[in-house]
Amino acid sequence: VRETPWRCAAFTRLLLPQVTALERQVIDFLGYQWAPILANFLHIVLVILGLFGTVQYRPRYVVTYAVWAPIWVTWNVFIICFYLEVGGLSKDSELLTFHFSQHRSWWREHGLGCVHEEALATSLRPLDGQALVSGSGCTLEYHYVEALHSVLQALVALVGFVYACYVVSALTEEKDSFDFIGGFDPFPLYHVNEKLSHLLFKQAFMPG
Question: Where are the transmembrane segments (predicted)?
Answer without folding.
Answer: 37-55, 62-86, 151-171
